[in-house]
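(Structure overview)
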Amino acid sequence: MDEPTGQSTQSRRRVQRTINFDRSVLERARAAATYLASYEPQAGVRSLADIVNPAVLAYVTELEDLYNDGEPFRPVLRMPSGRPANR
């Protein structure tokens, strides 16, 4: 079945989501965003989202290349909650 299970991902509207970060990763990213926004405007980083969005996009693109013939994965409306069962 090739029908998407979610809404179009074409919208560039930002949405707020809660995710869990390793504390050390979050602290480093927050420090970088704060420093760059204050002292290096040419970096184009004004917020944590300016670091997270490109990093996630790069990794998802890599996963699509490795596991889905370079095609976007089928959209989903809702992810299952909790950790996946061991296989």
Summary: The mean pLDDT is 87. The two ends are 23 Å apart (CA to CA). The first helix runs from residue 23 to 39.
